Amino acid sequence: MLSDNQKHLLRQAGVELQDIGEHRFCELCRHPQQIDSAADGELVAFLKVANALYRGGEPAISDSDYDFVFLAELKQRQPEHPLLHEVEPEPAFAGKTVDLPVMMLSTDKAYSRDEVERWAARIEKAAEELGKNFADLQFKITPKLDGYAAYDDGRMLYTRGDGRKGQDISRVFERGLQVANQGQRGLGAGEIVVSRSYFDRNLADFFDNPRNFQASVIKEKDLDEHAQQAINDHAAVFYPFALLPTWTGSWAELIADFESHVKTIWHKVDYDVDGVILEIADEELKTYLGATRHHHRWQLAYKENLETAEVRILHIVPQTSRSGRITPVAELEPTRLSGALLSRATAHHYKMVLDKGIGPGALIRLARSGEVIPKIEAVIRPAEPDIPEACPSCGHALIWDNDYLLCPNNLACPAQISNSMEHFFRVLKNNDGFGAASIKRLYEHGIRRVDQIYALNAEQFENMGFGPKQSQNLVDQLLRSRREAVEDWRFLAAFGVFRMGLGNCERLLAHYPLPAIFELSEADIVAIEGFAEKTAAVITEGFANIKPLFDNLMALGFNLQASQAQPDENAHPLAGKTLVFTGTLHSGSRDELSKQAKAKGAKVGSSVSAKTDYLVAGDNVGANKTNAAREKGVTVLSEQEFLALLNGDTA
Ligand SMILES: NC(=O)c1ccc[n+]([C@@H]2O[C@H](COP(=O)([O-])OP(=O)(O)OC[C@H]3O[C@@H](n4cnc5c(N)ncnc54)[C@H](O)[C@@H]3O)[C@@H](O)[C@H]2O)c1
Ligand SMILES: [Zn+2]
């Protein structure tokens, strides 16, 4: 049963226990493998409760069960579920909520060298697109502190909150908390941590675990005397990531001795560490790579997962996805791994099936990983694969599209149509009842598009075989989905345009109002940070394809919240602009001026590109450089002109 404190935490976080029930929640904590039997709603409710307890310092299950059993199950059932693509929320305290100076996200995770190499390959590609030499890039490794994330801007300390808005917890500094390493205030993101050896010696009798202790340090209520003592003894500190022990080197150096670099950094600090963080140092490339709603693409957490299993494949079942790509799903001899029973695994694509010999009878190695789970890590003994020739859903002949087998029959393929309709309701999130089973029935009765679903009344649902109560509920849910406010980028993402997931939709609509997206040229899209040339063509084509459906749905009147920052008369003239500094500056160091510009909402790059707005040229800058910038459409400013802008004078 849950403790009173745990129940209090849930109330504080606004997480409803009745969606799953206390009894069922505790039963699943003790017997994680029973999650197989849980309904989707139960699974989601379980995750929300577990997360709220964990963030409040009272975890009910181990991290490994959370990641590899419950979260993994959700990934398998509903890969697009928002819980998987957004920062896990922290419960709010009574206190001021403030915009974070920078986005504080979760991290993308890797459990094998293979995954690390795939991440590096994406970095290499982006570096190439920016004209940078991958071999020259510096990579950094730091220990991944397992504490309580916070951000220190020098004036206040904030929690990570939902990644965009956090809460003011400056009180911990008033309680005497020091910055680790004799560090100063204002060093940005870090974690509140407690020395592992100190905890074991002095705190283990009073707190269940360090997480429990850390949560108590930031609570608004009076501080526990042992916690206060730990702060006085400087055993509990705020550790800014900038001060962490760091390994730095090129990719070649990193990968040549990967295990040993990781191990050295992992054990460098006397705090709880649950992995290492890999990242690149190049600021311009970082800006270019950007972030999803969940993690920065320039950063990767490497964790260890020692449990693997050798499993025999029974057969491979091809499945047609929403986009027409055929996913190879291997049915396995049921095998237990990290607490869960595995009976299926996926291969990336059919090229891999072909190359590695993933056929019936093959012996493979499986590891539970944080990515699409579980997936085939390695083939120990290959077997002749079956490569399907026809789409398993519509029978259309398949074609190869790079590494993927593709069903090109996207206008009439039942799987593609049904999966797209299901995707719409799932991404929109503000409705219930349009899962795979309902959609299948609707499809069987001739429904092909979501606007047709919105046109149905209760009687028509009943005629398709839905019960009377369910029919009324579906009608209510459709109405609710139109009335309840929904962000315009989420609405756009629901259409499932290739390459337009939640993150990209949000990024695009920060620049253009929703109706304008159909007028965008490829060049308009490329000009936005984070969009590459190749994808822009696919995106404009995708928009053209959804236009008729989009218009039909808009006519129904959804309650859309526009995300685009309305042109603000009072906005600072540097807000949203990208600057590059060059030459000798007199009013401050380049770092100081960058900081001031960033504080006004500007971005600072390291070299001029087509995305730069201003080149701030100090002394001793050659005409070649300024002319080249002007040719790219960049405005060249003197230091004085820049200072005037910084003061708020308009350009
Ligand atoms: N046991 C449970 O019930 C439960 C519930 C929810 C989540 N969890 C655990 O929480 C984790 C997911 O949480 P998350 O979203 O906070 O993500 P995460 O574990 O990926 O951590 C991301 C955070 O790492 C921090 N970090 C630490 N060291 C860093 C460094 N050197 N450089 C940069 N950043 C660093 C940052 O603050 C960042 O916010 C999972 O491991 C999961 O198991 C457990
Ligand atoms: Zn098909």
TrEMBL record:
PROSITE patterns, per the entry: BRCT
Database matches in CDD domains: BRCT_DNA_ligase_like (cd17748)
Sorted UniProt keywords: DNA damage, DNA repair, DNA replication, Ligase, Magnesium, Manganese, Metal-binding, NAD, Zinc
UniProt catalytic activity: NAD(+) + (deoxyribonucleotide)n-3'-hydroxyl + 5'-phospho-(deoxyribonucleotide)m = (deoxyribonucleotide)n+m + AMP + beta-nicotinamide D-nucleotide
InterPro entries, alphabetized: BRCT_dom (IPR001357), BRCT_dom_sf (IPR036420), DNA_ligase (IPR001679), DNAligase_adenylation (IPR013839), DNAligase_N (IPR013840), NA-bd_OB-fold (IPR012340), NAD_DNA_ligase_OB (IPR004150), RuvA_2-like (IPR010994)
Ranges where the BRCT domain occurs: 569-651
Residue sites binding Zn(2+) per the record: 391, 394, 407, 413
Residues engaged in binding NAD(+): 63-67, 106-107, 160, 191, 303
Pfam families: BRCT, DNA_ligase_aden, HHH_5, OB_DNA_ligase
Cofactor(s) needed for function: Mg(2+); Mn(2+)
Annotated catalytic residues: 144 (n6-amp-lysine intermediate)
Keyword Cell cycle listed: no
Role summary: DNA ligase that catalyzes the formation of phosphodiester linkages between 5'-phosphoryl and 3'-hydroxyl groups in double-stranded DNA using NAD as a coenzyme and as the energy source for the reaction. It is essential for DNA replication and repair of damaged DNA.
Entry protein name: DNA ligase
Classification lineage: Bacteria, Pseudomonadati, Pseudomonadota, Gammaproteobacteria, Methylococcales
Gene that encodes it: ligA
